[in-house]
Design a protein that fits this description.
The protein has 249 residues and is α/β, with parallel strands linked by helices. The chain contains ten helices and six strands. The protein has helices at residues 21-33, 49-56, 61-66, 73-77, 100-110, 129-132, 151-164, 179-196, 204-217, 222-242; strands spanning 11-16, 38-42, 68-70, 82-86, 116-120, 137-139. Helix 1 runs parallel beside helix 7 (151-164) and helix 8 packs parallel to helix 10. The protein is elongated.
Length: 249
């Protein structure tokens, strides 16, 4: 069986609220180094196209000029089927499962038919818990005593590990559901859970977060998400049909 390497053209780098335009340019250069064409910037703190292009250099100017800018992270994530957060801060509420090298072979199969996004947080704080909430998994770059890396350095390390790893034989995987598709599924599930009184009001957010974590680990395909949404629709229809008079919603 031939080797199946990561499809770098299906890898995206998303910079969340970067503070310095020079780091955006350096990230564009890193993308060019490793064959990544999709660079996204969300809510940049300061925008200076000249500084971005200067740091990107002539070789990566096409990446810098074609990057997409969003103000809302949810909107930026919509096309991607698998989202990987990056963090240097570890703790009870930051369950990190992978390193870039460890996750790379797994992404070899996913990247054949799915768009995979890597989220990088702002230089001074990294990704927040709310931003990591949208990720299927989180990775950290192993360091010695000082865990914090420059934003562009972190992008280089992650893309290098992806580019050079993941060369063991793996079969291509089916297309996963995109962020937009899974968000629609979560809305359907939440509506059904509310209808049957499944979620306690005092721990609502905890329940919803645990459900997202569980479903995220399943790596649901687009077809599976449609099946779950169809089940939810049928259940809601049946509940409304059998509700006592005056109780139909």
């Amino acid at each position: 069986m031939p080797e199946l390497i990561i499809n770098m053209e299906n890898i995206a780098v998303i910079l969340v609220s970067p503070r310095y335009p020079e780091n955006i340019g350096a990230a564009a250069r890193a993308c060019k180094n490793f064959g990544v064409k999709d660079l996204v910037v969300v809510a940049p703190e300061r925008w200076d196209e000249e500084a971005i292009l200067k740091m990107a250099t002539h070789e990566a100017a096409d990446i810098a000029r074609n990057l997409r800018v969003f103000e809302d992270l949810r909107e930026a994530l919509e096309p991607y089927a698998y989202i990987v957060g990056t963090t240097a801060r570890l703790g009870r509420h930051r369950r990190v499962f992978e390193t870039p090298r460890k996750i790379a072979p797994h992404l070899a199969g996913l990247s054949q038919k799915n768009k995979v996004a890597f989220l990088f947080g702002p230089e001074h704080r990294g990704l927040s818990n709310a931003e990591l909430f949208y990720c299927h998994t989180a990775i950290t770059i192993p360091t010695a005593e000082f865990p914090s890396l420059n934003l562009a350095q972190a992008v280089v390390v992650v893309l290098y590990e992806l580019f050079t790893s993941g060369r063991s034989p793996r079969l291509p995987q089916s297309r996963l559901a995109t962020f937009a598709e899974t968000e629609a599924m979560y809305r359907h599930l939440e509506e059904l859970f509310d209808r049957i009184g499944f979620i306690p009001k005092d721990t609502r957010q905890v329940y919803l977060t645990n459900i997202r974590r569980f479903m995220g680990r399943l790596e649901l395909t687009a077809q599976e998400v449609q099946i779950i949404r169809g089940f939810c629709r049928q259940m809601l229809w049946a509940l409304n049909k059998t509700a006592p008079e005056g109780k139909t919603q």
